[in-house]
Predict the 3D structure of the following.
Amino acid sequence: MFTALPFVGGTELPAEQTYDNIDPADGSVLGQVARSGPAEVDRAVQAAARAQPAWAATSPEHRADTLTRWADLVDQHREQLARTESQDTGKPLSQARADATVAARYLRYYGRVVEAFYGEAIPLGPELHAYTRREPYGVVGSVVAWNYPLQLAARSMAAAAVTGNAVVLKPADETPRTALALAALAQEADVPDGVVNVVPGLGAEAGAALTAHPQITHLGFVGSTETGRAVARAAAERVVPAVLELGGKSAHVVFADADLEAAADAITRSILQNAGQTCSAGSRLVVHADVREELVAAVAERFRATTLGRGLDDPDLGPLVSVRQQERVRGYVEGARSGELVVGGSAPTDGGADGAFWLPTLIDGVDPREPIAQEEVFGPVLVTTPFEDEAQALALANGTAYGLIAALWTRDLSRAHRLAADLEAGQVFVNTFGAGGGVELPFGGVKASGYGREKGIEALAGFTRTKTVAVRLG
């Protein structure tokens, strides 16, 4: 049995209180997690505040080399990280391995691009020399979700640290271990003690203490819209910037001229990946009436062929993260008042019945005003709604409070570009679905999906502030 302890200033802190870390595949106890509170958070912030000035004074080249060493260590420990991630989240091992690979990619990518990031000269005439500087905020606080704990921790740590900030990260209650492992590997890569700190614990305790701490100068949050509002209020109280990546209700908009086989494959992947527990999951299928029957049948066939099992056995679909999440999914599915249940609709009754599993579920012809079509279910549940023309398709796709991702499936590229401009989403994919996109692609939402951007070079801008300097010459 392990105990996941706070990693602060390059060392582990003892745990005053702990709680159980549960295996979602069978409900067994994997180990204990330290229940950090305001005292541990304050120690982490003080450690970060001591370390940050000297770290910021190093050259971008030095920080880039350090992150590259860190990335190499993540690659070396890929299998161990993946197995831990699979156990904590329940996701299939192959998906967890991909997450470990992407975590290293974040560190390596930001290490490579940071040297080309800083400042610009502004021509104001021969008597004035004007330029901008990009400066770190100082101590940044980050609270991340449980669905991609390794990726989310890596992308936050990498972009914040490489720009000269120090980080205090609070991982999700259910999935703390890979963030702690990343912090330990950072120390091995010679990231100075205190630059990267991780405080596990409960959101209402450790998370609240972190977002309210007076020395935190920037906040990042990945999670539900409801909690995001609380984080935004905490940031507003102290007038510090925040980047919020919140929920989604992403739509696949499939026209009659689409490649239906390719669309069916991507639609299936985008809702079954990580058991549908992805903010960018393609949870709505908005399909032209002429191809609705054919496409629904194709997706249903793929759903029926899906294998279920514990993550370490690498099935197509693992369990949900907890029994609580399973009950949330059950509530949405059993509460649906319209549509025809085509596949699934329940927890399995045979293998996996003791875990937090849910069968791939497809409900055809759902009223778009229903909660299951409007709210984030966060499970392997897909609902469909037909349309007759472009205007109706656009209205349906934009017809939720969210705006994270959308996908267009059509061979008409004029239509694709036209509608991409009108879709209310932070990312739009055409004849593909990126489930959040690559490391290089700016990622974030509009409306209730949040604000600010992570990933890509834009994330570096988010972790720095611009200072303008103008000097009269002569």
Summary: DSSP finds 15 helices and 21 strands in the chain. The chain has two domains: 2-246+449-470, 251-438. The chain has a mean pLDDT of 96.
